[in-house]
Amino acid sequence: MAAEREPPPLGDVKPTDFEELEDGEDLFTSTVSTLESSPSSPEPASLPAEDISANSNGSKPVEVMLDDDREDLFAEATEEVSLDSPEREPIVSSEPSPAVTPVTPTALIAPRIESKSISAPVIFDRSREEIEEEANGDIFDIEIGVSDPEKVGDGMNAYMAYRVTTKTSLSMFSKSEFSVKRRFSDFLGLHSKLASKYLHVGYIVPPAPEKSIVGMTKVKVGKEDSSSTEFVEKRRAALERYLQRTVKHPTLLQDPDLRQFLESSELPRAVNTQALSGAGILRMVNKAADAVNKMTIKMNESDAWFEEKQQQFENLDQQLRKLHASVEALVCHRKELSANTAAFAKSAAMLGNSEDHTALSRALSQLAEVEEKIDQLHQEQAFADFYMFSELLSDYIRLIAAVKGVFDHRMKCWQKWEDAQITLLKKRETEAKMMVANKPDKIQQAKNEIREWEAKVQQGERDFEQISKTIRKEVGRFEKERVKDFKSVIIKYLESLVQTQQQLIKYWEAFLPEAKAIA
Amino acid sequence: MTKEEFTKMKQELEAEYLAIFKKTVAMHEVFLCRVAAHPILRKDLNFHVFLEYNQDLSVRGKNKKEKLEDFFKNMVKSADGVIVSGVKDVDDFFEHERTFLLEYHNRVKDASAKSDRMTRSHKSAADDYNRIGSSLYALGTQDSTDICKFFLKVSELFDKTRKIEARVSADEDLKLSDLLKYYLRESQAAKDLLYRRSRALVDYENANKALDKARAKNKDVLQAETSQQLCCQKFERISESAKQELIDFKTRRVAAFRKNLVELAELELKHAKGNLQLLQNCLAVLNGDT
User: Which residue of B has its CA nearest to A329?
Assistant: First the structure.
């Protein structure tokens, strides 16, 4: 990841990361002070980064990153962070490591052609943000676990409470290890808060697990069968993954709502996540309105990058859905196989009992035992299939929906800008008309309106630029995460397959001499 | 359908055909060996003609009339079987064999059905691997990040693994399911033999009763006597050969189970080792890349 930002001689990724941070250590204080002095807009902040890049290019040779140095560095960063407002945090917390802007401006995993077309301000912002996220990625020191689902209450008002445990060394949290009890609607509430704050500015907020009326009703009613325990386990794992993904996002990690969610023992009940509440219905209406708008907005895409990306995500979505369907079928068949193997094992045992030749009878009983063990194996493999592979795919299908949502927000933003421009034009025409008709009071009014709309147009343009910038960065991050995620999960899955085969070998090797012993 | 999908499907069909062919051939072989090993059947002229005649044997399949005849014969036989099975046998050996066979037959039927279901699920799981492989391949070719190589490698792995899994399922089918199916029919044939013997016994006893009645009435005594003699001979002959056959049945059964179970275990081992090798190679390559 850092490779693109480093000059070619530094091949290996890890050392360079540390190296950058090492450099940053010296220059950090100066940067922070500059940043703090100009809290209003991100633009000035980019300049210090540029300075630092110039300086640090010279101090590149500093090598040997030690763990303690790294921690200290980050500690410094976080201290500064707490003084600033939430929006500023992403900027401040970034390590002002050598942006290396002269090299490749867009540090995505795969160097893209479109990156070269980016305008200057974007480069600095992005590199700064990337450094920050990369720094966070290296010093990523927060572990979240969701465990101990327990049923609280009774009857239809019952719900499952999950224990959310956080282990961290980030100093923005008051303790290094703490846990709270949360219920499912709390998670949904967190997601809706984050979404309302960040989605429309272009951040990809990880989607929360889906509601399931059937599943929850079974749990509420109190059926203690395997399907309800499976449901609870599935949900617990999904909530854990959801939180882990959310904290991996550097911007979201700084959000006070998230911190409150993780830390505070009492959380106000998120009522408007209920499907039939007022907020729920409002959400549904909005969704419908959005769908209609999407069809009517015709955007002039000036940037081919976005068009290409959207197409890519469409394709990816389709492929993932197909793959997901196949994997689900595999899970289903493996469960079937496990059940059938168990049935066969019992049947073989009975056959062995009724067989009157002793050696054969013993061999058949052995066969029954082997098959029973294999059935267990198949069941475990089915679980692995599901929890590793299938859930990963469904998570990503939902994430891509979130990404598409972000692209749609950008379109809406553009639409607002366009509308502002059109209104401005109209106002100008009105002014011209007034000039001709020579009505002084109306002219003044028209001038006021023009000024107002000019400001709006400027704001619209700025917003649009900002959202485009953020989206590019987010998409880059998303791609990186996706690659990492897929690789690690698939490798884990393959390892589970390896284990299964090894066990199979053991079992059959134990059986073979028994079979040979039949006289 | 793209060219790759087409070649893939062609390979799949070929593999399936090969598996079915192997299975059918094995069944035929077992049947012929069985006939050849039997001291009396091996001398049958039909058998010799079957083995030696090097031109086309024009065998006519059963026409409708014959099929209907068979159906009625079966009905009658099963009804009769119920009547006859009520008769208690004098000979311990045959009594034991009867109870044994009844139980054994039922359990083999159960085991055979379950084994069939198991091999079928195995096969559908292997088919799923195939679909996953092609989806991964599509993902790999369409993706532009460096994960595309990763996907292509995993897709390749799934294709190969799938072939092995399909072979496992086919071998299980061959060694286990077919064995059980065969013994299902064999035990049914043994039961039929016992039925015939019981039938002969009943006839013998009836003939005895008829002879006694004739002697009491003192008419048709000679006729009754000859028929009783005939029945007696038939019964004794059938008892002798039945005993021999049932003993043979047991030895054959033990030998066949041993052979098939050993082969099953060896094949399962071979495939599991192959699978393991494949997975480990792939993991080594993938871990080396990342």
Answer: B128
For B222-256, b/e burial (b = at least 16 CB within 10 A) is eebeebbeebeebbeebbeebeebbeebbebbbeb
Q: Does B262 contact A515 at a Cβ distance shorter than 8 Å?
A: yes
Find residue A182's DSSP bridge partners.
Answer: A162
**Which pair of tokens denotes residue A431?**
């002014």
- B107/A494 touch (CB, cutoff 8 Å), yes or no: no
8 Å CB contact of A360 and B258? yes
Q: Phi and psi (nearest 5°) for A147?
A: -145, -175
Residue A387 to chain B, least CA–CA distance (Å): 16
Q: Does B274 touch chain A (CB under 8 A)?
A: no
d(C-alpha B155, C-alpha A494), whole Å? 12
For the stretch A371-392, pLDDT in tens is 899 888 888 888 888 888 888 8
Interface test mutation site (partner B, options A108, A305, A315, A330, max chain B beta carbons within 10 A)? A330
Q: What's residue B95's pLDDT?
A: 83
Using a CB-CB distance cutoff of 8 angstroms, which residues of chain B are in contact with residue A504? 268, 272
Residues in chain B closer than 8 A to A328 (CB atoms): none
| Residue B184 tokens, joined | 């299902």
- Give me the amino acid identity at B275: N
Average pLDDT in the A255-268 region?
80
Residue A461 has pLDDT above 50, yes or no: yes
Dihedral angle computed from the Cα positions of residues A294, A297, A300 and A304, in that order, rounded to the nearest 10 degrees: 0
Inter-residue contact A173 to A180 (CB < 8 Å)? no
pLDDT tens-digit map of A72-83 = 444 444 433 334
Task: Of B98, B70, B53, give the one whose Cα is nearest residue B197.
Answer: B98
Nearest CA-CA partner of B190 in B182, B178, B202, B200: B182
Distance of CA A177 to the CA centre of its chain: 23
Counting other chains too, the contacts that A272-281 makes at CB distance below 8 Å and 24 or more residues apart are A272/A189, A272/A192, A273/A185, A273/A188, A273/A189, A273/A192, A274/A185, A275/A211
Q: Can you tell me the distance from the alpha carbon of B6 to that of B17, in angstroms, rounded to the nearest whole number?
A: 16
Q: In the 8-state DSSP scheme, what is residue A96?
A: -
Task: Decide if A334 contacts B105 (C-beta within 8 A).
Answer: no
DSSP-derived secondary structure for A120-156? HHHHHHHHHHHHHHHHHHHT--EEEEEEEEEEES-GG
Task: Report the pLDDT averaged over residues A338-363.
Answer: 88
CB A236 within 8 A of CB A147: yes
Handedness of CA A319, A321, A324, A326 (dihedral sign): negative
Distance (Å, rounded) from C-alpha B185 to C-alpha B168? 25
**pLDDT tens, chain B, 290 aa long:** 578 778 878 888 888 888 888 888 888 888 888 888 888 888 888 888 888 888 887 777 778 888 888 888 888 888 877 777 666 666 778 888 888 888 888 888 998 899 889 888 888 888 888 888 888 888 888 776 677 888 888 888 888 888 888 888 888 888 888 888 888 888 888 888 888 888 888 888 888 888 888 888 887 888 888 888 888 888 888 888 888 888 888 888 888 888 888 888 898 899 889 989 988 988 888 887 65
Contacts 24+ apart (CB under 8 A), B269-277: B269/A505, B269/A508, B269/A509, B269/A512, B271/B164, B271/B167, B271/B168, B271/B171, B272/A501, B272/A504, B272/A505, B272/A508, B272/B168, B273/A501, B273/A505, B274/B164, B275/A501, B275/B161, B275/B164, B275/B165, B276/A498, B276/A501, B276/A502, B276/A505
B121/A333 touch (CB, cutoff 8 Å), yes or no? yes
CB of A167 closer than 8 Å to CB of A177: yes
User: What does the alpha-carbon distance between residue A320 and residue B143 come to, in Å, rounded to a whole number?
Assistant: 11
pLDDT tens, residue by residue, A446-458: 888 888 888 888 9
